[in-house]
Structure formats: C-alpha cells, structure tokens
Amino acid sequence: MKLNLRPKNKKYTVLIVPEGTSPVFRFNMRSFSMITLAAILLVMLGMLMMLMIMNRQHTGRIVSLKAELSTSTNRLESTVANKEQAIDELLTELMDLSEKSKTIESKMAELEQLEADMKAITSGGRKSSGTGNILTDSDKSMEHADTEGGVGGEAIPLSDEEVSMLIEETKLSISSSLEEMPELQSRMEQTKTNLKKYKEMMTILPTYWPTESVRITSTFGTRRDPFNGTLTSHNGIDIGGPSGDPVYAAAHGTVTDTGYSSARGNYITVSHPSGVKTNYMHLKEISVSKGDAVKQGDTIGLLGSTGRSTGPHLHFEVIKQGTPVDPINYLTIPGEDE
Known about the structure:
The protein has 3 helices and 14 strands.
C-alpha cells in the first residue's frame, strides 16, 4: 500500500463582482499562493503597526523635548531678565553714589574754604621761619613702609557679595556724612564768627611779637643791674637782635609819645583801645610821630642800642592802669602757637 505524501495544491477562484452591468473579474489561485499572499499581508500589517507605534513614541518624545526646551528657554529668559534687573539696580546705586559723592566734594570744598578763612583769621600775618614739608597720613604710611620693610601681598579680587557689601557700606557712610554735614557747616560758620570776634579783640591787645628775633635777654621782674650789679626792678622784657631790625606795633593804637632820654634812648609809647599802653625803648630809629594811628604789625622803628644799653636790643613794656605788667602774659611767641 502506497502513502500519498504530496501536499494538496487545490485551486481557488476569487470573483470580484462590481455593481451594475460591469463584467465579473475572476482570479484563479492555488492554496499555496493564497497562503503566501496572506503571510505577506500579515507581515506588512505587522510592520505597519510597528511603524505606527514607533511614530507615536517618537511623537511623544518630540513633544516632551519641546516642553523641556520651552521650560529651559523660559528659565533662561527669566535668569537674563533678573541679571539685567540686578545690573540696572547696581548702575542706579552707582549713579546715586556718584551724585552723593559730587555733593560731598562740593560740601568739602566749602568746608576747606571755611578752614582757609579761619587759618587766615588766626595767622597773625607772620610767616613761619620753618620750611618743613607737611606729610599726609598716606605719606607717613609710605615713609614707614620705606623705613620698616615695605608692604605687599597677593591681589585677591573681591567677590560679588563683598562688592555688594562695600557698596552698601559706602552708601551708609556717604548718607551719614551728608546728614552730619549741615550741622558741621553750621558749627564751622559759628566758629568762624567767633574767631573773627576773637581776632578783633586780639588786635587791640599787645599780642603781636614786636621784633624778628625771639631771643629774650632779660625777663620781667627783679634782676641785677647790668651796669652796677645791684638788685633792681625790670619793668619789661629785653629782646636781643641785630641792630636795624624792624620793630612792630604789638596792637592797634595811637602813638602818644616819642622822644629820647638818657635812660630810654629813642623810645615810642602807643596807647591801645583795650586801655593798655606799650613802650618801645633803645631804638636806633623812630619811624612814627606823635598822634599817628598804627595797626598791629606796622613797623614803627628800628632795633638799636641807644640810651642806657649794653648792646642792640628792644626793651618792651606793657602798662596796665598805670602799672607795668609782664608782657609775656600778652605776647604770642612766633612758632609756639601757630
């Protein structure tokens, strides 16, 4: 008995019947071809479904990436906007500081002018004999640096936080200075007024040193007479100096007497509005006349050694209510109170 192992390959007819009177289409296919076609269709359908699934996944990923990009863009724009706002605020603060700095500079210039006015008031018109230079704090610091080893170190830039703190501290300092400035200026104006009054008072008191020399050769009070050695009363002070040096009026006043005597030599007497009188003796030359009005610091004669004198000097007296008093109680020695 023989077994028939050959696959059956039956034929199948596929009819396509259109509507109307159109002819019928007929396709004859064997079973193998139909199976193959069905397999191909299934494969194509599976691939199409896979493509659709992949497309959906890719679409979702693209949407997610777009959302992330939009969020990042918004965040970046917000950061940039914040930075620009911070920069604008910083620039505004710097502008405020600049304006306040200009105001302070103007106020300081006014205060410096007040200071110069007060110095002009308090200086007696006599120049100091010293020629030393004035050192500022920074000059002194550099001087110490030169003599004590110098300074140095790494240049470390400030952080943003430190810069912000510095700006804030500067603002507070400037604001505080501006608040205090009007009161300070008012006090200085009052001081200036008081100094003017003081200066006016000082011009009618014998405060101006009457010679160029400041070498006192004999003080006020009891002393041994330079000629006979006996104890005598010395009613003024003797200021030694070169013959011919100018002799100055110690205060505003009027010349009430001039002349010569064997004891005084050439002498001048000046009466002052304060009620005191001053005498200038042993002059080489008299430059004023009785009745002349003199101002403090005017040259009224020349230093000499006339009369009862051992050498060139000025004998200077201050008479208060008819009684000689120590001139040192009135005089300002040049260089000591400047």
